Amino acid sequence: MRETSIIGGAMTPFGRHAGVLAPELAQRAILDAIADAGIEKDDIQAIYCANVLGGMILGQLIVRDLGFKGIPVYNVENACASGATGVHLARHALMAQQYDTVLVLGIEQLTALGGGTIPLQRNDHKTELYAKAGMVLPAVYAMRGTRFLHERGASREDLAAIAVKNRHHGSLNEYAQQRTETTLEEVLASRMIADPLTLLQCCPSQVDGAAAVILSSRRRSAKRPVKVLASVVVSGVREQADDDILDAEITARAARQAYEQAGLGPDDVDVVELHDAFTIAELLYYEALGLADHGEAVSLLKSGATRVGGRVPVNPSGGLLSKGHPLGATGVAQMVEIMWHLRGRAGARQAQGAKVGLTQCTGGGIAGVDHAASSVHLLGV
Amino acid sequence: MSTPPYPLWSAGDPPALLASRDLERGELIFPAVPDNSPLAERHEVVAVERVGTVYTFTIIHPGAKSGLAPYALGYVDFPGPVRIFGRLQGKAQPAIGDHYEPRADAAFGYVFESVGA
Prior knowledge:
Chain A is an alpha/beta fold and 381 residues long. Chain A has helices at 22-37, 58-63, 82-95, 125-133, 137-152, 156-170, 184-189, 249-262, 279-288, 297-303, 319-323, 327-342; strands at 5-11, 47-50, 73-76, 101-109, 192-194, 197-198, 208-216, 226-235, 271-273, 356-363, 373-380. Chain A has twelve helices and eleven strands.
């Protein structure tokens, strides 16, 4: 099998890009990624466009005026795991020697929806029934939060501390939407959304953004290639009546497969970008990714290990809580961030000496599963 | 709520909330499998036990502009076992371990009503 690497990447600032249509938003990330990779546009042999809510053939629309010579464009959707799924599929094609250099683009424009919660996929009796009763993603995460506080003896302050940490990281990141720090008091006093989750414990919903990476199986430039050590996509299994909702089952399963694929373990990971759509998510994923033992998520947070400057910074970009979560772009943006750290280019939020990075994202939106899709990648130099 | 394509309530008195049991594995799933599903022949319709226990919950706080009051949602565990999501009513502040029973509702099909311990 061919070794595949990220040889370049770029992203737009995440935020409200009023009046900017998809081509203008995405082309900036594409052109910057091509320049970063030190390649010519015509070196790209296929394009994977990850997007959830932007409509059909969005990839072709975006690249129409860029002068690609009719190369294949694949549009990929896996809810919030779309971007990572695009990278996963692109890697397969490289490993199969179908191509040697491809572009993966992720884009989403949530401001066009006017804000609010992401809609569920209601073309299903169970999801439709539950959605009618009030199931929305904040409620799903909030119920995990309630159970976490009950079982682990954790406090509301423990949840809020995730937002404080990630907003601090976001203040160091020019690409984040939320660039001001916040305090525990401010987080806890912000408007209650779904108890125990207050507004500042939920990722911003009014956000647009795009990110792009160039994957190659050839050594093309002098810049350090970031090897894809593992790439895993899994789907949810139907929930059992006695499931422990704190297990984050789909993420734990994806992580186990990724570590096995790479021949690595959690202790080998130097920096992480994970799916902190809500504060409780980051705590659960500490354990699901093996960064903390069962029941030790809050201890890991309190140790400072997951803060920039700590042993294994988590969400040094500010995470979804600071950047926002443009669905299709998130998974690709996580890899751009990790690429920067592994190349020593992350500035004030640099994870010192990072050699191995992990990205994780999960896609929700249907009832009866932990999540519908999860993707974990291990990247290394 | 318009009539769903799957059985939701039994015709008995009092009516029981309905689920499907997998004939091979014995697993209960909710809502029941619709008659037009290719999976229907692998299941039988069964009644959910009358009283369940709250596994977890949240209270949704709608924005001020909506004019809606806060409301509770949760997962309730019933013997079988089967875990069902729905609205929790009859108590201002639910708690994990509280007992609720299903009640028919015109808007949502069913809600869970608080009962004494």
